[in-house]
Design goal:
Helices cover 38% and strands 16% of the residues. It is α/β, with parallel strands linked by helices and 314 residues long. It has a single domain, classed as Rossmann fold, CATH 3.40.50.720. The strands form five sheets. A four-stranded parallel sheet has the order 3-4-5-10, sandwiched between helices. The chain has a two-stranded parallel sheet with strand order 1-2. Strands 6-9 form a two-stranded parallel ribbon. It binds uridine-5'-diphosphate. The site of uridine-5'-diphosphate has 14 residues, from helix 5 and strand 7.
Length: 314
């Protein structure tokens, strides 16, 4: 919108909230519709960004059939709208198409190591089927399409109960709760700050470079173990939370790091915000957000009739 475009947004609010779009609702040129993309829709658009899907394992595993429908049918309907509009579509794919990778770091040419029959399959195979659909629409109808393989992304406006590692660790640290490490914490992830990702998505959408018409990895190539992340969050928040070790979920990838050579070369894109800086912004966000929901120390939230009981400490 800041670049002068009119924007129509669709969301079923499975993981999003109205608070996230509240500032946009007042602006000219912004339209919003509460809609599930698994149900057909029609928007006349020059550019369609299909970012619909739960992305946290906790959320996508709670509704695995919806997850598959969102990925496949959502992509189908977005493609139909792009085709009829004679516009361009960008499909959000994922590093999960590489599964538990046997090649490290992962280039776009790697076909992946995905379990088709397991806890993460609804998301991994859902996104893989969407990529195949994009390929097919291009072959059959010449639809202009871009595919971004998005690696772990974090930042302000994540939900406190999202369940992914960055928000979990920050919220646990700020609340003095134990930090939950799944497995021994030696598995790695590479964390990309949200603003960097948005810049990469826009560059990819607008690129006409030959290689950018294939899938493009977007992520921060700096790799950390989960244990390193926990220690950094503890240090930066000054929290006294202790670490606890829980079972590693099944099919949890052991390593993940993007090879971003294609994005660097074709889009001239590199993440600018490194982990410490991005974490600080996210910690600040949660600090404000969580304390907004905490009663201040000197007030007790009680019904007026119960004031005496509250004073009595009951
Ligand atoms: N993880 C963890 N503790 C948590 C949440 C996640 O140790 O409270 C681990 C998880 O097992 C995985 C990594 O952190 O190895 C990243 O998990 P996340 O759910 O953020 O994303 P994923 O990359 O697995 O989709």
């Amino acid at each position: 919108m800041n670049e002068g475009h009119d924007v129509t947004a669709l969301d079923n609010f499975y993981t999003g909230t109205t608070a996230n779009i509240a500032p946009l609702l007042q602006r000219d040129g912004f339209k919003f519709s509460r809609h599930d993309v698994a149900i057909p829709f029609w928007v006349q658009a020059d550019q369609t960004y299909n970012l619909a899907s739960a992305a946290s394992p906790k959320d996508y595993q709670a509704e695995p059939i919806e997850t598959m429908k969102t990925s496949f049918l959502g992509c189908l309907h977005a493609l139909e709208t792009a085709k009829a509009s004679e516009g361009r579509i960008l499909q959000a794919s994922t590093s999960e198409v590489y599964g538990d990778p046997q090649i490290h770091p992962q280039p776009e040419t790697y076909w992946g190591n995905v379990n088709p029959f397991g806890a993460r399959s609804c998301y991994d195979e859902g996104k893989r089927s969407a990529e195949a659909l994009i390929y097919s629409y291009r072959q059959m109808f010449d639809v202009e399409a871009r595919v971004a393989r998005i690696f772990n992304t974090y930042g302000p406006r994540m939900r406190a109960d999202d369940g992914r590692v960055v928000s979990n660790f920050i919220v646990q640290a700020l609340q003095g709760q134990p930090i939950t490490i799944y497995g021994d914490g030696s598995q790695t992830r590479s964390f990309c700050y949200v603003d960097d990702l948005v810049e990469g998505l826009m560059r990819l959408m607008n690129s006409n470079a030959e290689l950018a018409t294939g899938p493009v990895n977007l992520g921060n190539p700096n790799e950390f173990t989960v244990l390193e992340l926990a220690e950094l969050v503890l240090e930066m928040t000054g929290s006294k939370s202790r670490l606890i070790f829980e079972d590693l979920p099944s099919d949890d990838p052991k390593l993940r790091q993007p090879d971003i050579g294609r994005a660097v070369e074709e889009l001239n894109w590199r993440p600018q915000v490194q982990l410490r800086e991005g974490l600080q912004r996210t910690i600040d966000y949660f600090d404000t957000h969580l304390s907004a929901h905490k009663p201040a120390n000197d007030t007790v939230a009680v019904h007026p009739d119960q004031t005496d009981l509250a004073h009595a400490g009951l």
